[in-house]
Description:
By secondary structure, the protein is mainly α. 60% of the residues lie in helices and 8% in strands.
Amino acid sequence: MDSLDDPNRVWPTGLTIKESEALHKHVIDGARIFFAISLFAHLLAYMYSPWLK
């Protein structure tokens, strides 16, 4: 059976629902990690050069 004809795969990605949910989880986790790192970097920048004081 051709993967394009598979009813469990969703257009346009070709992923199944379970695969797309797993990918979405990784994207959200990555965004949370990026947010935490950027928050820490901004805190350090504020501590060493307080631009609002």
